[in-house]
Amino acid sequence: MRLRTLAIGFLLAAAACGGSGSTQTPSTPTSPTPARWSLSGTIVEAGAQASPANGRVDVLDGANQGKTAQADAQGRYRFDGLEQGVFSIRASADGMDPEVRPVTLTSNQTVDFALKRTPAAGPGVSGVAIDGLTDRPLGGVAIRMDGLGETVTGADGAFHFNSADPQQIRAVTLSSSSIVQRATHLRVPGPSATLPLFPASLDLSAFDQMFRSSGVLHRWTTAPRVVVQTRVLKFTSISDVDYTAVGSVMTEAEVNSLLADLRWALPQLTGDTFTAFADEQRETAAEGERVRVSRPGWIVVARYEGLTTAINYWGYTRWSWSGAGEMQAGIMMIDRAWDASGSVYCRSLRAHEFGHALGYTHVFVRQSVMNTNATTEPNAFDRDGARLAFLRPPLNRTPDIDPDPFTGNLRALARQIFWAGDR
Questions:
Q1: Which mean pLDDT values do the consecutive 10-residue runs of the chain (423 residues) have?
Q2: What is the pTM (predicted TM-score) of this model?
Q3: Which of the residues 125, 303, 359, 396 could staple to 217 if both were Cys, CB 3.0 to 4.6 A apart?
Q4: How far is the C-alpha of 215 from the C-alpha of 60, rounded, in Å?
Q5: Which domains does the chain have, with CATH numbers?
């Protein structure tokens, strides 16, 4: 966080139009009202002419995307007031393979469906699609699997693909108006899979700024360990890996307060994946001793003398990750005078710098603990975003694409270590 004073000025200007005595008001052009039509039809089982249970038709794209019509007991469905245009619709029902049709709507139109019954489940893969935040089953999600076609989840979120082929890893795409489109891979045949999905309401821009600013997700895959250096260190450079112990020692109460704030932030910023550190240590270096702060698997926290004077920030953190996207270490630096000042923003600054130590970067488009002013404590966006981030493997990329298991040597990538830092 930067110590700075912002001067905000407002310039008010008035402009006269039309000259003295003018009373003319310019007319506002109006857009033509789009033509609207109805779309109706029936859903039956092919060859039986019976109406399957829970029939529905979804508009998949175009101006009417997201609209749904539920079929009645006779299989009849109807949309009214659809905008004229070209789009696709999908019919689905319990126990039936879905069918997608293109529609060019320029008048009231009828489209009937005769759906084929889904073959009985055999060797393959089953699973369930759920909301990543609520764990609620998601019905109506279209799932396309390479080489095996497409199905739609039932009201219970369940799906199944048959395959008698030898086990393969197949690409899977999940889409619906209620979720962020997801791309991942499943083993087929394979064990039952639970697929948690990002809700469409997710602020994807803010999520990417916080968790995937480099284009891919970096995160801790095991609980980090934390060590507090209780002796004040002399700040020299943001790139050093060791510093000289020069000042006073933090009191036990101060250390307890710092650790309590980090314990408080940990579950909130990891989606409750980690509710405790793998280890907690306190160290007190001798005055004049050189203290190594770069330690694999650890987040090293200390107060620094002269930090704000040197870089004009109250805090600064460096973090490292491997080429495989797994976080490796964190170095939290907090200005000694600031951290001992008793400011009401002390906890929010600690949480902000801790977020950096977890691999997160600044958020500019909404309120977040990762705002650059470091005066916001973790909020609902931060907690929900962290929960979703920890549902994904490292190297996941926007909008929700998992890394391809067939490309890249993750073992070699894991040996490459990268560093970044920010206030």
A1: 36 32 47 86 87 91 91 95 93 86 94 83 84 94 93 90 84 96 93 94 98 97 98 97 95 98 98 97 98 98 97 97 96 96 95 98 98 94 98 97 78 84 94
A2: 0.75
A3: 396
A4: 28
A5: 36-115 (2.60.40.10), 124-198 (2.60.40.1120), 205-397 (3.40.390)
